[in-house]
Structure formats: structure tokens, C-alpha cells
Amino acid sequence: MLFTPETFRSVLAATLLSLGVLFIGAGFFKLVGFGFNNHARTLAAQSAKLGQKSITSDITNVVQAAVQLNESVNNLLRTSMGVGAFLIIFGAGFITASYAVMFVA
């Protein structure tokens, strides 16, 4: 027999624990790493263009552009935070399952 029941439980628990730690790490990286992606750089460049435009354009167009920029940043942050939170919750579920496989059953 390749695996005894106790060895199988240990291997399964170790695999679930590893996946849980990996998912939690990825979730934290996603939450903290928002400032390092290309979208943030693009938004920073657009805000610089918006500042230059305010000098030469009327105030109504500038305010509309600022509102749109603010909405896009908020949507980007919400999406990034949602994915990060989902990964962390999923990782915690893996760790809980690892504990249940090893010690409860």
C-alpha cells in the first residue's frame, strides 16, 4: 500500500496548509501592491495632464475630468481590495481545512 491513512492525512493537511499560506500571501501582496502596478502609473500621468489642461481650459471641463479620474481610481481600488480580501478569506479556509483534516477527523 502506497499511503497509510495517517500518511495520507498528513500529506493532505500539509498541502492544504501550504495552499492557505500561499493564498494569504498573495492576498496581502495584492492589497499592499496596488501602488506598483501599471494602472497607478497611468492614473498619475493622467492627473499630470489634467493639471496642465486646467491652465488652458475652462473650469467646467477640468472639474468633469477630475470627477471621472476620481471615480476610476475608486473603482480600481475597490476591485483590487476585493480580490485581495477574497484571496485572504480563501487562504484562511484552506488553513482551517488543514487543521480539520489533521486534528479533528
Q: What's the number of structural domains?
A: 1
SS element count, helices: 3
Which term fits the overall shape?
Answer: rod-shaped
- Return residue spans where pLDDT drops below 50 for at least 5 consecutive residues: none
Number of strands: 0
Order of helices and strands: HHH
> Average pLDDT, to the nearest integer?
81
- Residue fraction in strands: under 5%
List the helices and strands and how they pair.
Layout: H1 5-32, H2 38-56, H3 59-104
Task: Summarize the structure in words.
The chain contains 3 helices and no strands. The protein has helices at residues 5-32, 38-56, 59-104. The model has no long low-confidence stretch (mean pLDDT 81). The two termini are 21 Å apart. Helix 2 runs antiparallel to helix 3 (59-104). By secondary structure, it is an all-alpha fold. The longest helix is centred in the C-terminal third of the chain and has 46 residues, at 59-104.
Summarize the structure.
With 105 residues, the protein is an all-alpha fold.
Question: Which features characterize this protein?
Answer:
single chain, 105 residues, mainly alpha, 89% helix, rod-shaped
